[in-house]
Amino acid sequence: MDTSELQRPxxxxxxxxxxxEFRTDWIKTFRQLRETAPIAWTESHGGYWVVSSYxxxxxxxxxxxxxxxxxxxxxxxxxxxxxxxxPTFPAPASIPIETDPPVWNVYRDLLNPFFGPKAVExxxxxxxxxxxxxxxxxxxxxxxxxxxxxxxxxxxxxxLDLLGIETDDWHRxxxxxxxxxxxxxxxxxxxxxxxxxxxxxxxLAKEVAANRAKPKPGLFSAVCNGQIGGKPIAEADLxxxxxxxxxxxxxxxxxxTANTLMYLHKNRSxxxxxxxxxxxxxxxxxxxxxxxxxxHNIVRHATKDxxxxxxxxxxxxxxxxxxxxxxHDAAAFDRPDDIVLGRMPNKHVGxxxxxxxxxxxxxxxxxxxxxxxxxxxxxxxxxxxxxxxxQYPLVSSINGWIKIPATFTPGKKVAAGMRL
Length: 420
What we know:
Layout: H1 20-24, H2 26-36, E1 39-42, E2 48-51, H3 54-62, E3 67-68, E4 71-74, E5 79-82, H4 103-111, H5 117-121, H6 124-136, E6 143-145, H7 146-151, H8 153-163, H9 170-182, H10 188-213, H11 219-224, E7 227-228, E8 231-232, H12 235-266, H13 268-276, H14 281-292, E9 298-302, E10 306-308, E11 311-313, E12 318-321, H15 323-326, H16 361-378, E13 383-384, E14 390-391, E15 401-403, E16 405-407
Helix pairs in contact: 6-8, 6-16, 8-9, 8-12, 9-10, 9-12, 10-12, 12-16
């Protein structure tokens, strides 16, 4: 590659995706970057590229050979390189999202049958029953927390059901994945989160043994009894597959639903529009996915020297792909910083792009549908207590809420045939 015409020196900016300044005004930050430096270098966290334009984000996302997702973890030293976060999280690779082909292909082929449109549609009735049972727990008291009572539990319940794991202790599976996103990584509280995640890994290891001894319905049993190259999959890899499904299934949809219901709290005309026009929901949902972007930013690593947008990205460099920035690019979307519920077409990258596009995007849509529908049908006058709502302190990977207390006119239980 001839690098003589590339810009020198690097375009360096003051940027930190873990800063409070970024959290409070990320839309403006990315707008300014797109206007002045759509591909820029920051010295934060040892140095990395931040890419915020739709054109360049999608190019990088689609070129897995040049921009790798693979993570390498040493279980002896507990050190990790690569992967999808900056800094790299010191844990085994999430399978298959932190792998590349050909390894990626094998695992994805095992998982795909459970995440296609028809397979997800078949889970709709179960999802409706679960969300009705969750609302039954709070409907008579006239108050609930959008996150803690609904948007976090429902994805956990549905993900466990998808995996085929039956448990009455679903809270222990739900809460750590929510806390993992927002609790400060150097705090004592985070040590408890790690302990809780290790407990989940232990439960998954038990599920591996149980499902190999006696296969049962569900994704996890199918994977546990699957093979790669004619050999059973290692237990450690199976545990990480289970963790990946849980991580991907729980807090991204939690954040999207929480942001949706907060938006509908503040925009009553939009709420009335959706209540009066249920046929408008699918198009509106895609716009809310675009605007709030569940997978906010994600990381790749260059496998060779490459030019992107006039900048030389060197082999080994880390690249923060701002899906959230791409989704607010005026070059791709008219009025990108406005929510236009009827926006069509809508080529958002809210679930990523390329081969690593979110495996569970159809499941996430189903979860959003059943949760928002249940709230608007049974709590149509809900009011958020804004002074008590708490956002995530960071929006480095997921843009969500810790809690959103709300009130509504009490109603009656519907006896949906399920108790939680």
